[in-house]
Amino acid sequence: xxxxxxxxxxxxxxxxxxxxxxxxxxxxxxxxxxxxxxxxxxxxxxxxxxxxxxxxxxxxxxxxxxxxxxxxxxxxxxxxxxxxxxxxxxxxxxxxxxxxxxxxxxxxxxxxxxxxxxxxxxxxxxxxxxxxxxxxxxxxxxxxxxxxxxxxxxxxxxxxxxxxxxxxxxxxxxxxxxxxxxxxxxxxxxxxxxxxxxxxxxxxxxxxxxxxxxxxxxxxxxxxxxxxxxxxxxxxxxxxxxxxxxxxxxxxxxxxxxxxxxxxxxxxxxxxxxxxxxxxxxxxxxxxxxxxxxxxxxxxxxxxxxxxxxxxxxxxxxxxxxxxxxxxxxxxxxxxxxxxxxxxxxxxxxxxxxxxxxxxxxxxxxxxxxxxxxxxxxxxxxxxxxxxxxxxxxxxxxxxxxxxxxxxxxxxxxxxxxxxxxxxxxxxxxxxxxxxxxxxxxxxxxxxxxxxxxxxxxxxxxxxxxxxxxxxxxxxxxxxxxxxxxxxxxxx
Length: 492
Known about the structure:
Helix content: 25-40%
Radius of gyration: 26 Å
Oligomer: single chain
Structural class: alpha+beta
């Protein structure tokens, strides 16, 4: 499968032998996947391929449509009616997409039947979303969810437009606000920092400096200005805040010893620097601290999570959240569970960055003016350095690596509080292979974790089991009750 997708990315169609190998995998797994769509096509070309053409073109890595397999009949190979005409008809539909989709076709013989694959490459981000021209951008754009194609939400379409057109929602003026709603002391400090750090800019009049730095539009404070320097930003945007909770158990709804839902629960307000510091204080006073004796024989307090990692995640959420009208009513969430810490912010990954290269390459910045203002206002040793710091801090603390998720309009980072055991967590493919081998017969989460010597079951589920399920390589024995204590996992 990986070889096939690699060829697709390189713009070279797969070989007939590779298509045969892919069909063998499909028949063994008996399922479609995130990147595989099956069509019968034994009596003609499917009439509406627009949704799948859109989904695969918008999806990282694209996807493959395989014609000639009947998933409703035990995934038997039924063959296609006419491979030449099929390619013509699929191409005709692909030409009705914006931008035009160019499938790469492969024809192969399988047990005496002719099968055809159409590889759909991911389109360039500057051309996304790819959509069916006849329905228009809003109604004709789709996203792949598991093995189905779902219409994009208005926000998902907008998120592509924001990047392509360079829309900066942080610069939107706050219509109800006046310049007097900016805190005079913070403003004085900010301008002093400007004069200290940016000599050329400091020669300009103060009102022009504030406009050029995105603090005002010349008349009104901007969202950026209000969130960094405002007297009380939540007076204008009540939900541009943080909701912080401490849960007694491992899931929302779990009750504590006294039947309480929350051990602590607070809405955190203020400017971004204020919310950052108060959020760190909230987490610090609620997380567990262990006392150990170090190599020098001294007593040392060991916090449940590294404070630097916590600071980076919260700052990342505040700086990189979406400040558009689509998410202005959604707060950032910080949730401390018994076994993990979650930080979730509105707005998925922005621009060209993906989960796979997160922290490895320079990322596009959604809110450069907010980011620039905070670099001036936050002390040098407290400046955020991003995801690499989080990864390093967790490794130095002997904890499992963080898990990052970006899905349909939100980004979530999860830290686990259990210590790493003797297992090579960097070799994810090897771990997945071991899971599939071990799950040749149904196994519980506890059994899999014990087999891998991983104490953090929730980490294992999110990092390995869920991706294997999404890839169609693993399935749950009780799919309608994923959190059941009797749940088992078995190789497909």
